[in-house]
Every structure is written in structure tokens, then in C-alpha cells.
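lol so apparently i was supposed to do this last week
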Amino acid sequence: MKKYLVTGGAGFIGANFVKYLLDTHGDEISIHVLDALTYAGNLMTIADELKRDNVEFTRGDILDAETVGRIFDEFDPDYVVNFAAESHVDRSIEHPRLFLETNILGTQNMLDQARRSWLMPGTKDTYRPGKRFLQISTDEVYGSLPREFDTPQPLAVSAEVAKVASGRTDLHTFGKEMFTEDTPLAPRSPYSAAKTGADLITLAYHETYGLPVNITRCSNNYGPYHFPEKLIPLIINNILTGRRLPVYGRGENVRDWLYVTDHAKAIDMVLRHGRVGEVYNVGGFNEAANIDIVRTIIDTISRLMHDNPGYMPLLKRPLDEVTYDLIDFVTDRPGHDMRYAIDPSKIATELGWYPETPFKEGIEKTVRWYLDNQPWMESVTSGEYQNYYRQMYSDR
Ligand code: NAD
Ligand code: DAU
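anyway here it is w/ nicotinamide-adenine-dinucleotide bound
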């Protein structure tokens, strides 16, 4: 029975990972979720999972050595998956220090406790077998790629990758370059600089102390339980609640969208089969310009409402007002990265993973999920979370 310590497991990707693990391994595993429940974490997201005998929860900070140490001593995880982080680029521009504290020092504390707990007695760099520390990183550590094409062009991948990803026939790209694991690190926002710091200290613990680590660097995730500060859930929420739709600059920036369950599968494969000390890029094979994402969401909501009049009471504006006229082009994000595009060849060829969900299918599932789960949205946008946010950020 494998034991997983999942930090940030009440947040978007962490919670989807917990659900994926239970769907895939059932009672063959046990899970301990450690989450500080910042504005971005919500116990409602994992309420059903917490009822199970093989899932436990601690509210705590990854920076707190005593709490983390106690979990290592009592639970003795085989796998640590460190999702916990401040994750929103716009907030990092307003409050950089909190990002450095949580994302770098928090990760260092997690690594320290893993090292202390997993070391074989009497040794300095030999660890009990079967242990693995996985740091969840981001494509943003590589910086920004140029957008070279006005419209997406067919993407050519190697024969080996094409064989693994034979379920995808919709591959396209906005440029000739993509991020590989060898792309130099060049973060450009306080958020991505902090995530880069976390990557470097994780690799340093491997090189210096021999700690068995991996890093995964993924592209933009989307799917259920995504906090409505990020583009896709924000646009869905704004359409439903009668607000306008803010698009930064001209909406030409490109992101590579990865369905969150595909990401969860990749993480579990790296934990179980990845080579120790290696970095794996995890991408969606789905580059899209922001303006097209926003238009697709408008079209999808409009169509679902037409086809299912039962959803109509969720819409706080007349359906014929759900058009592209709702879009406002607003002041751009400072230092806004132009394009991200992940080359997932390494994980495809070494581990046989590829992003199975085409965007068309994933966005439909995602919009439907939000329409079917409005109580969740109301819970995370409630005053309690807003107050927490004000408190945490007041002095940093
Ligand atoms: P999120 O903001 O939805 O969730 C973060 C979770 O971490 C929340 O539950 C929060 O309460 C918890 N947390 C924050 N600070 C903590 C602390 N000090 N101690 C314990 N818990 C704490 O983020 P997400 O989108 O789920 O991202 C998860 C991870 O994946 C992050 O490390 C992020 O950098 C990375 N990532 C996210 C994306 C994406 O598209 N969302 C893409 C690439 C990488
Ligand atoms: O690439 C991985 C990263 O993706 C993760 O590491 C981050 O944790 C995650 O937040 C995400 O960062 P982005 O900045 O790409 O995501 P966000 O949803 O904030 O923005 C997506 C794009 O949409 C980006 O180009 C900015 C733009 N945008 C965003 C918001 C919130 C808008 O145009 N309007 C908006 O209101």
C-alpha cells in the first residue's frame, strides 16, 4: 500500500489529483492532505474524499517544520507531491514576498523534513527504498516564447511521439520553438521566479544529499474546481453573474491548455516510473490565444443554455446578451509572457504518457461542470475567502 502526502490538496490541481488517485487505486493507497486553506483552498472540494478511511487531512502550513515533521513521523509517506504554493501571477505582482516565502522556503522545509525522515539510520545520503519527492512546477520557469504565426499551424512531432499520442489528431502550434527540459530557466514574474527557486532547491537536495526527487513542469491546467481568479473559471463566472469579460492587452497571448485529469495521470506515472532526479515537461498539445478561449467559452455557454433551458436560471442576464460584445480589452499584465508551449516528448517516449483530452472535449466538460456545481462557486467566492485574502496580504 503506497502512502501519498499531498500538499495543497484542497486547491485546484491537488484536489483533482486526490480524486484521480482514489478513482485509480481505490483502497490500495492512503492519502494525507496538508493544506493551509488559504483563499485558494476549500475543504468543500474534497468533502467526499475526506469521508473515506484512507484519506486524512491536516490544516497546516508547509513552512511549519513542526507540523510537517509530525506528519512525516506519524504517516511516513512513500510519495510527497508538493502542490502547495501561491499560484496566481497577478497576485504575485502585487505581493511578491508571500510568493517567495511559501513557494521557496515552504518547498525547502518540505525537502528538509523528507530528508530527515527518509534517511537510513547511520547514513548521510542513503534513503529508505520506495521514497519519492515530486515538486510540482510550471512551464513559466522557462520564460516566454515568441508567437510567430497569426493562425495556428499543424504541429509536426517525431514518429515515436505520434505513435504514443495517436489518440490526438488536432495538433497545432503558434511558433517554431517549444519548451523542452533543456530550455534555460528564464522566469519573468515574481511568481515564476519563486517557482524557479523551488525547482533549484529541489535539484540541489538531489545533488547534495541524494534525496530521490522529480520535478514536473506543466502548462496551464483547466477543469473542475478551478478558482475563479484564473482566466477560464473567471470568464465562466463573469458570464453567469452578469459581469463583463476582461481580456488583457489584445488577447493575443498564447497558453497551452492541459486538462487537469490528464495532468494528474502524468504525476502518478512520474512518481511510480520516472527516473530519479529527472525533470519531466507535461503539456496539453493545445495552444490557444486568450481571445479564442474567451470566445469559445461564450459560444459554449450560449449553446448549452439554448439546448438545456434548465440551466437558464443560472444566468443573471438575458441569453441574447451572451455575445462577444461582453469582451473588454483592458490594461495588459506587466511583463505579460507572450506564449507558452510545452514539448512533452520526454514523458511520452519514456513513460508512454500523452494529453488524452482534446480542448473541444475538455472545455465542454468544464463549462458543464460549472453549470452543475454553482454551490461550489458560491462557496469559494464567499466573504470568508475574500477576508482571508485581505488579511494574508495586508502586510506583504
Ligand atoms: P491553487 O492556488 O488552486 O491551490 C494552491 C493550494 O495550496 C491551496 O489549496 C492553498 O490553500 C494551498 N496553500 C497555499 N499556501 C500554502 C502553504 N503555505 N501551506 C500549505 N498549503 C498552502 O493552485 P493550483 O492551480 O492547484 O496549483 C497547484 C500547483 O501547481 C502550484 O504549485 C502551481 O504553481 C502549479 N501549477 C499550476 C498550474 C495551473 O495552471 N493551475 C500550472 C502549472 C503549475
Ligand atoms: O503556465 C502555467 C501557469 O498557468 C501556472 O504556473 C500558474 O499557476 C497559473 O495561474 C497559470 O498562469 P497564467 O498567468 O497563464 O494563468 P491566468 O489564468 O492568470 O491567465 C491566462 C492568460 O489569460 C494570461 O495570458 C493572462 C490572461 N488573462 C488572465 C486573466 C485572469 C486575461 O486576459 N484576463 C484575465 O482576467
